[in-house]
């Protein structure tokens, strides 16, 4: 049996969609929560026991999500709440006995990714190897590679040779997808790494007490542990194997990433409509996903890569492309929207133009008539009464 663990992280102001009122992993992309797409792919595994959501969000944030997907898939979804930011491995190290109870392997997935996750294929690869860990990777462009953890593998055995987290210069275009499989032996490995870090930290603080004033707080926290920077660096290389994913993959760290993920998922579901698990939406050949309760004027032109949420009202002559409109958005006649995320219950006036590289309008925003917005981030409950080129409106 296998247990799937989704690493949620916690509240962060780094991402511009942090203006969204709920937890970031619950942000809807292509009509489904970001982590909903991951659960949809994982639940197809025949030997899956259950799901564990792990993070330092308040557990109340995920109650509705848990109830919804437990009914949908018939699998228990537990939530393990961390009391503080513990890193990508701190929560795992603290809950190893519970996580490995009654299962042989652990599938660990970061919540801030989007991909056509072929979980069963990855699992079969993992079982064919004798290592304690398998890492899912993907090829990206040379320019993009330094944004992620870069890996070098043995081309004959797939064993990990070298790993560098966000290197300053190009090392490899093979990058970490944030998806892992661990067997029971991983428990010993991570506990050894944790003990070694604690011993080194205690010795460092004892010999040089002033170090606490020049180091980051997470570096001084004994409960903080990183899969990428701590565990992988100290794990025996001949016991870690690298699996190369050949489908699409997108890390989601910003509003731009959200729109890219939306585009990739719409293309994927348009080609594989039987995999889309939200019957309240309909997708057409232009890559446009529309909730059945939305009102679209016949003269409005949508697409490509557009999502229209529940209860939206799109007026006469409106043009929308490469955008996400969440529930309850109203766009009045003859407005133009491009490369934008428009959150709940926002109202766009007549003859408005919202365009640029990326725009984000938070919940309950009102944009007055005949305004022009380019590259603007607007926080919730704002009224926009004048045109703006760049910047953040509060």
From TrEMBL:
<feature type="domain" description="Nucleotidyl transferase">
    <location>
        <begin position="4"/>
        <end position="208"/>
    </location>
</feature>
<feature type="domain" description="Mannose-1-phosphate guanyltransferase C-terminal">
    <location>
        <begin position="287"/>
        <end position="387"/>
    </location>
</feature>
<dbReference type="InterPro" id="IPR005835">
    <property type="entry name" value="NTP_transferase_dom"/>
</dbReference>
<dbReference type="InterPro" id="IPR056729">
    <property type="entry name" value="GMPPB_C"/>
</dbReference>
<comment type="similarity">
    <text>Belongs to the transferase hexapeptide repeat family.</text>
</comment>
<dbReference type="Pfam" id="PF25087">
    <property type="entry name" value="GMPPB_C"/>
</dbReference>
<dbReference type="InterPro" id="IPR050486">
    <property type="entry name" value="Mannose-1P_guanyltransferase"/>
</dbReference>
<protein>
    <recommendedName>
        <fullName>Nucleotidyl transferase domain-containing protein</fullName>
    </recommendedName>
</protein>
<dbReference type="Pfam" id="PF00483">
    <property type="entry name" value="NTP_transferase"/>
</dbReference>
């Amino acid at each position: 049996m296998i247990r799937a663990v989704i690493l949620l992280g916690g509240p962060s102001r780094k991402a511009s969609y942090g203006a969204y009122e709920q937890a970031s992993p619950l942000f809807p992309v292509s009509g489904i929560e970001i982590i909903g797409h991951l659960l949809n792919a994982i639940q197809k595994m025949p030997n899956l026991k259950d799901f564990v959501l792990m993070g330092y969000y308040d557990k109340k944030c995920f109650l509705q999500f848990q109830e919804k997907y437990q009914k949908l898939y018939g699998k228990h979804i537990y939530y393990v709440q961390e009391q503080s930011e513990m890193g990508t491995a701190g929560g795992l190290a603290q809950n190893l006995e519970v996580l490995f109870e009654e299962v042989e392997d652990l599938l660990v997935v970061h919540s801030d990714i989007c991909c056509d996750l072929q979980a069963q294929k990855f699992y079969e690869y993992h079982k064919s190897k004798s290592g304690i860990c398998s890492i899912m990777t993907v090829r990206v462009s040379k320019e993009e590679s330094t944004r992620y953890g870069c890996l070098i593998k043995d081309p004959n055995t797939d064993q990990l040779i070298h790993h560098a987290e966000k290197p300053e210069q190009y090392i490899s275009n093979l990058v970490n997808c944030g998806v892992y499989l661990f067997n029971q032996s991983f428990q010993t490995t991570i506990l050894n790494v944790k003990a070694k870090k604690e011993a080194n930290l205690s010795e460092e603080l004892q010999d040089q007490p002033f170090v606490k004033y020049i180091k980051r707080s997470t570096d001084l926290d004994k409960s903080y542990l990183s899969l990428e920077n701590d565990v992988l660096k100290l794990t025996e290389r001949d016991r870690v194997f690298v699996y190369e994913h050949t489908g699409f993959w997108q890390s989601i760290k910003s509003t731009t990433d959200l729109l890219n993920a939306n585009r990739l998922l719409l293309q994927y579901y348009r080609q594989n409509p039987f995999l889309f698990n939200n019957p309240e939406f309909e997708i057409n050949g232009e890559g446009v996903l529309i909730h059945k309760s939305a009102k679209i004027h016949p003269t409005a032109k949508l697409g490509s890569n557009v999502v229209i949420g529940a209860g939206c009202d799109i007026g006469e002559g409106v043009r929308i492309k490469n955008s996400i409109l969440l529930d309850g958005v109203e766009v009045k006649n003859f407005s133009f929207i491009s490369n934008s995320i428009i959150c709940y219950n926002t109202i766009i006036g007549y003859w408005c133009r919202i365009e640029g590289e990326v725009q984000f309008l938070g919940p309950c925003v009102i944009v007055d008539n005949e305004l022009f917005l380019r590259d603007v981030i607007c926080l919730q409950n704002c009224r926009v009464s004048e045109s703006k080129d760049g910047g953040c409106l509060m």
